[in-house]
Each structure stands twice: as C-alpha cells, then as structure tokens.
C-alpha cells in the first residue's frame, strides 16, 4: 500500500526522518540509547520509544522505595511509569525541533516484567517471556505500520545481558518488522534499517579505566554485569557528548533503578557495580530492506539526512 496523505505530510515535516526504539523496561531507553534519542529529537526527527513492560520485577535502590517491590505492595510498575515520563521529558529537552512520543506495547500493563531467568516471576502467565509471539509481534507491527519509521532499533539476540524480556523484545521486534512488510496487516511498511543497540567491550573498558572517584560502596568490574559486544562488529557509533547532560538527567529520573555519581561520569544499578556513562552509543546494522536507499548505513548516523 502507498503512504497515506497524512503520513506524507508528517514525513515532510520531519526531514531528518523517523526512528523507533524498542525496549523491555523503563530505564532501558536511557541506559542504552538515551543520548541517541536526545540527539535525533534535537535534530528534528520524529522519535518514538516503545516499552514492552512496566518493569514490575526490578530491584530498587534505597529504603524509600522498598515497599514498592513485587514481594511487598507490588506498586513498582506504576511508579516506574512516572520515572519513564520524567526521563523522556529530559531526553526531549526544551530546544529540540523534533518530537518524542512513548507507548507501552499493547497498552500499559499488557505484559508483565518476567524477572531474571529461573525466577518465579517468569512463570506468571502475563510475563512478557510467555507472550504469544504472534500477538506481541502484531501489536508492534501495527505501531510500525502507523509510525512508518526509517529506522527501528532493539537488542542483540542475547538481549544485551541475557534478561529474558530483552531476548523476547529482540525476537518480537524482528518478527514485527517482517510482519509489517508482509502485507498481512491493514497497512504495509517495509522498515529500511533495523539495528541492534549494543555496548562496545573495548570502549567500555577504556571508559571504565578513566572513571574517577566513585561512591565508597560501589564496586569496580570490567563488565559491570553487562553483556559487552566486540567493538569490531559495531557498525555505527553515535557521538552523544552534546547530549550528555540530558542523558544524565534522564538517568536520575529513574531513581528506583539507577544512582549517578556526583560528577555525573558514572552510574550504578542496584548491584552497585560502577559503570561509565559513555560519550558514544553503539549499534549494529542487523537488517536492511531491499528498498533501502543506496546510501546504506552511515557509520556515525542511524538516519540518512534527507535533502
């Protein structure tokens, strides 16, 4: 099917294109792609973040949030909706000429955080890891067909660090991209470029070595508990230094999950392992559409600028 008039007008209004980020939980959008989101909003792109769960099973930092957890009042998911809203506001900034919108896949609370592999949370019928693949992929494909992104990003097959919801998000995104182009939806959209968001191993190590003083109770570890990716396989490096302040502000919005060092150079999750806040974000080109432009995928941009 051809592009509708409404979509054609919107495409003209956003000459830098449209990009869709698919994430598993609130805070993932900031941890892995926050600077890239801020960059493209600032440069005029139409950006959307889709989050697959509310992050109900997350651990929390500090006693003030202790009663929110799933084994207490089970109110963490609702609180993280607020944190996500604040983080998106930080990433959108006040001087961007593009837009940033957010949706929960299937609506807020449709699928529940699965917790880590092997935990009781994964047995919950509503857990995202147990979602019917076709149902979840159809929900995302409908978003893709409506939004018509030039670029879609999700995780690598290992889900960055092996979290079941990240792995599921990877599979659902790939299935949705194929479904959106198949002709089986009400509309058709063949996504030109599909990327995996990753963290480069050598880049991370060098940045960690340069991190200065961190809180006394933080630990130092070469991986930070993350599944790091071989640098030589990275196809795109986004310089986010101009948007570093926005990313740090978004980190701080996720107060139940993240602590940022006083100097804003590093952060830690509930495991208290110090991790650098990198000045660049990394992506691997996973798929190109046969209809993608001949320009291909540039090494320092996700979107090819339109004239």
Automatic annotation (TrEMBL):
Catalytic activity: 1D-myo-inositol 2-acetamido-2-deoxy-alpha-D-glucopyranoside + H2O = 1D-myo-inositol 2-amino-2-deoxy-alpha-D-glucopyranoside + acetate
Alphabetical list of InterPro entries matching this protein: GlcNAc_PI_deacetylase-related, LmbE-like_dom_sf, Mycothiol_biosynthesis_MshB
A molecular function (GO) term: zinc ion binding
Enzyme class name: hydrolase
Enzyme Commission no: 3.5.1.103
Cofactor remark: Binds 1 zinc ion per subunit.
Keywords, comma-separated and alphabetical: Hydrolase, Metal-binding, Zinc
PANTHER family in the record: 1D-MYO-INOSITOL 2-ACETAMIDO-2-DEOXY-ALPHA-D-GLUCOPYRANOSIDE DEACETYLASE, N-ACETYLGLUCOSAMINYL-PHOSPHATIDYLINOSITOL DE-N-ACETYLASE-RELATED
Family per similarity comment: Belongs to the MshB deacetylase family.
GO BP, one annotated term: mycothiol biosynthetic process
Binding residues for Zn(2+): 25, 28, 166
Species in which this protein is naturally found: Hoyosella rhizosphaerae
CC cofactor: Zn(2+)
Source species taxonomy: Bacteria, Bacillati, Actinomycetota, Actinomycetes, Mycobacteriales
HAMAP family registered for this protein in UniProt: MshB (MF_01696)
SUPFAM superfamilies for this protein: LmbE-like (SSF102588)
UniProt keyword Transmembrane, yes or no: no
Protein name: 1D-myo-inositol 2-acetamido-2-deoxy-alpha-D-glucopyranoside deacetylase
Gene coding for it: mshB
Known function: Catalyzes the deacetylation of 1D-myo-inositol 2-acetamido-2-deoxy-alpha-D-glucopyranoside (GlcNAc-Ins) in the mycothiol biosynthesis pathway.
